[in-house]
Each structure stands twice: as C-alpha cells, then as structure tokens.
Amino acid sequence: MSFLGYPRQDGSVGVRNYVGVISTVSCANDVAFWISQQIKGTASFLHQAGCGQLPPDLEMATQTLTSLGQNPNLASVLLVSLGCEGASADRIEEGIARSGKRVAKVVIQKAGATVAMNEGFRLAQAMVSEASKIRREEFDDSHLMVGVKCGGSDTTSGLASNPAVGATCDIVIDNGGTCVFGETPEFLGAEHILTRRAINSQVADKILDIVDRMEKRTIAMGVDMRGGQPTAGNIAGGLTTIEEKSLGAIAKGGTRPIQGVYEYGERVQGKGLYIVDSPGREPEFLTALAAAGVQVVLFSTGLGVPQGFPFLPVLKITGNPVTFQRLPDHIDILVELTREKTSGLQAVGQKIYQEVLEVASGEQTKAEILGYGNFPGLYTIGPII
Amino acid sequence: MELKEKAVVLNAKDNVATALADLKAGTSLELEVGDKPLTVKLTAAVPFGHKFSLARIEPGAPVIKYGEVIGTATCAITPGEYVHVHNVASTRGRGDLAGGAR
Questions:
Q1: What is the CATH number of the domain that holds B55?
Q2: Which residues in A lie closer than 8 A to residue B11 (C-beta atoms)?
Q3: Which phi and psi (to 5°) does residue A102 adopt?
Q4: Do the domain assignments include residue B50?
Q5: Chain segment A205-261, per-residue pLDDT in tens
Q6: From the CA of B94, how many Å to the nearest CA of chain A?
Q7: B-chain residues within 8 Å CB-CB of A185?
Q8: What does the pLDDT look like over A39-61, one tens digit per residue?
Q9: A188-204: pLDDT as tens digits
Q10: Residues B78-87: what's their mean pLDDT?
Q11: Residues of A in contact with B89 (CB under 8 A)
C-alpha cells in the first residue's frame, strides 16, 4: 500500500510540510510564538526547558530539540535562541542541518526581541515560500513511522482501544514500517510480558533497566505512586493499580518483537517495533514521539483527551461509546468493545490503518482542525535550579 | 451502543470480572470463566468499567486480571464484592513502604 508524502533530503518522508519555529530555551518562547502566529505555514515548538537545569537535562534538551528539527514533517527549521542558554543552540543548528534541510537561527540577545522577531519574519516567510513548492509524491507504506499513545485511560482502553491500536501497529510493521511506543511508568507490572518479546537479552535488559530507573525515581519521593499513576481519572474510570493499567496499556504496542530501546529525545533508526524511554504525560510523551521521527500518532483514550501536537497529526481512538458521543470535536474513531477472544481485532486494525494512510496523505485529524496542541512539553529528570 | 454482556472475565485465571454496564447491588450475573459457567451475585453496586470479585480473596493474596497479578487484597474480599482502591493495593512504586516491595 502507499500514501502521498513529502520527500526529504535524508530519505525520510513527511506527511505534513511545516516550517518549524523551535525555541531553544523557555526565555525565547515569546519571539518564537510571535513569528509562528504571524507567518502562515509555520508550526512552533515552545517549552519550559533549556536552561537552569543540571547537565543531563540540558543534554536531553539539546538532543530532543535537534531530533525534533529533524522530524520529516518539517520542511525547514527556524531556531529562536536567547543567546546565553544552557542548551546548545549551535549544536541543535548543526544537528538539524545534518539531515540536509535548511535551518536558520535568530538570537534575541544580539539586538533585542523586536529585531530578532523581524529577522525571523523574513526568514520564516522565505522558508514557507520554498516549502510550498514541494509536492506530495506516492511512497510505499514502509516509509511510515507511527507512534502510539494512550491517555485518559479507563477500563475500555485495555479492553478495546489499546488492542485495536495494537492490531494497527502489527499491520504497520508487517508492511515494513516502524512503530514506536513508550510511557515507561506503564510498563510496571507488565515488564515480564515485554521482555519475552525482546529480540535479544540486551534489549530485554534495557527494558528492565528503564523500568527500574523510573520506579526508583518515584520511590525516592517516599509516597505511593497511586494517584499519580494510575491518575485520579484512571481510578474514577475503574483502574485500581499501576499494574492493571500497565497490563492494558501494553496492548497498544501490538504483538511484534521489540527491536530496541531508545533514550528520550533520540531519533529511532530501523524498521519494526521500538520503545522510547519516556513519561506517560501527554505533552512530554508526544514530544518524544516527534523526536523519534514519527509522522503520525495513534492515540487511544477512554475518558477522552484533547491533545494534539504542533506538527504531528494525532488520531484519537476510543472504545468508550459514551466518550465518542460526548466529545465529537476530539475523537476521530470509535472501535467496538473487543474481547481478547473475538476475532474482529484484525478487521478493526485494518480500518484504523486505512485511516492512517488517509491522514498521512493529507486528511486532517480533529485535533489538527481544532488547532489543539500548541503547548507541548520537554521532559526533565532532575530539578530546575 | 448496547452491549450484550453485562460483565467480562478476561482470562480463566482471573479472580475478578469487569462490569460492562452500571450494575446494581443484588444483580445476579451468569459469567464464563474460561469455559466454565459461574454465577455471581453482587453485594454492592459496581459502575461501568469497574471490577467485582469472582471468589473469596484472602488479605495479602493476589488479585488477578488478564491472567496477571494487578495487586494484592488489603482485606478479605468476598465473592460478588466491589473491588477497587479500597480493598486492593499496588505492589509497585511504593515509596511509602520505603522500597519494601522490591
């Protein structure tokens, strides 16, 4: 099967064609926001990281912003830097340039925000003009990298929408593409099932390692993680423990072998199923998927959540008919309640896969049309100092 | 959407079932656990998506769904009882137990 996408210099294929306006530090957000508001065809990435953090977090910010700039849904990138930040704007610029796309940078401390903004207007306008000349072409669906996420989970997530998304994941992989999942806290209690699917013992050990790191960080707070995970909403929806949530959550990753585990912010290389170490919270996790190089996200939800992402189409899928009726402005697809026994899963997966190809070819998701997704986040593991 | 089944048992090893509708106290449910039929009478109301027990679960014993352990009972749970955060604890991420779970 095939879809219509935008060819990129590094061989990847975009399903959207934005000029990215990426802030390299929280202090530069305003200028990046002004530019993206004025110049049509841009998508901004604003966040609260990039300075006043310990070196591992600064490194993670630099790595993540570089990978975001390399995402195939961006034709070119304008960086907005303050000038003195801890994250390295120069390294981000060089890293994005290595993917072959045009990258430019404006620096606020050179001559002030208004000058940087005007310079940014001119650069972004020229970049959008260039990007608009790129035409969609037909590509084999093995060029797809699909991210999967669940959020606002209730019991129907584990029974219906997660298995349905998992079935779609299997189809993406069987057609030669790549799927990425993560949300490490939601491996707790289900890691023995994931490790059985690892392609070798190194990958299995890495899965156990990221779960152990995450659990130790939560234990260090000296409290029961319940209320944080599962969330208050999950508990209201009938999920009692993180183990129960995890056992339902891992279904969204399908059933294929796990090829590798990446750190947060790294770009995934290869075909098949991969894990990115990441938190479950939407703003930070969707960023991890975008950094991985994902073009489309399948988002399974029970209670119904609105999040999209500035330059990724996010398809919302629910197994809860009440949520589907209540939130028509957010939910794209309703799947019938499915039991593990029933054989309808493959058909549901095919239906969702067809929708993925349509969206990849340009059909807009509800979150995109609504413009919901302007406030992504960038994960931090240490304190803000 | 109308669901035919009022509750579902996901795996033959499970000692809890999931309600697929808002169920009232006193409701009698004909369930299948694996291939075996089981009748359970609810001792309390169970909302859509929430769980009730299929068997007696002793304090400290595992609560099983999807054929896997989802936590342990914090008190004795009788058949047909509503099962949730009031009578089941997680064994993971328990900083309050000073890492005692691992």
A1: 2.30.130.110
A2: 340
A3: -70, 135
A4: yes
A5: 999 999 999 999 988 988 888 888 899 999 998 999 999 999 999 999 999 999 999
A6: 4
A7: 93
A8: 999 999 999 999 999 999 999 99
A9: 999 999 999 999 999 99
A10: 97
A11: 224, 241
CA distance B54 to B5: 16
**Whether the predicted interface score ipTM is above 0.90:** yes
**Residue A42 per-residue DSSP state:** E
Which residues from B are below 8 Å from A when comparing CB atoms? 1, 3, 8, 10-11, 18-20, 47-51, 63, 65-66, 68-71, 83-85, 88-99, 102
Closest residue of A to B62, CA-based?
Answer: A243
What is the C-alpha separation between A268 and A72, in angstroms, rounded? 13
Contact B93 A218 (CB under 8 A): yes
Number of structural domains, chain B? 1
| CATH number assigned to the domain covering A140-370 | 3.40.50
Q: Does pLDDT of A34 surpass 90?
A: yes
**Do residue A224 and residue B90 have CB atoms under 8 angstroms apart?**
yes
Instruction: Provide the domain limits for residue B38.
Output: 7-97
Is B78 part of a structural domain of the chain? yes
- pLDDT above 60 for B2: no
Sequence spans of domains, chain A: 18-133, 140-370
For domain A18-133, the CATH class is: alpha beta
Query: DSSP H helical segments within chain A, as ranges?
Result: 29-38, 55-70, 89-98, 108-111, 113-131, 155-156, 162-174, 191-196, 201-219, 232-236, 242-249, 282-292, 321-326, 345-360, 366-370
Residue B27 in any domain: the answer is yes
